[in-house]
Amino acid sequence: QVQLVESGGGLVQAGGSLRLSCAASGRTFSYSGMGWFRQAPGKEREFVATISWSGANTYYANSVKDRFTISRDNARNTAYLQMNSLKPDDTAVYYCASGRQTIAATTPGDYDYWGQGTQVTVAS
Questions:
Q1: Per-residue buried b or exposed e for 60-86, using 16+ beta carbons within 10 Å of the residue's own CB
Q2: Sign, CA torsion 105/108/110/113
Q3: Could you read off the pLDDT of 63-90 as tens digits, one per residue?
Q4: Which residues contact 28 (CB under 8 A, 6 or more apart)?
Q5: Fewer CB atoms inside 10 Å of the end CB: C or N, the chain?
Q6: Cβ atoms 93, 45 nearer than 8 A
């Protein structure tokens, strides 16, 4: 069993920044790839970013590339999502997820544990 707790969401003006954190417990954190997904009202959950167990491999959705950065600290059992140059279209509930494998993965089915989500609202 894995518990994931996201934090760091909030309300920010367009162009601003937020840093999301995902604290993990229950399974050896460093054995799993980690991912961030988001879901806006009335839309499907979509992939945002992923990182492999070591941090050597990262992948991003085209919509956030060059603005968001995913990272992890295995000593602290925590994953992060640094979000810069935020846009109103980034408004969503953001979820972190723990992967079934050590690799970075982009589809929800590759993850077996999910956090409760944290709201990010970007005002224009």
A1: bbeebeeebbbebeeeebbbbbebeeb
A2: positive
A3: 999 999 999 999 999 999 999 999 999 9
A4: none
A5: N
A6: no
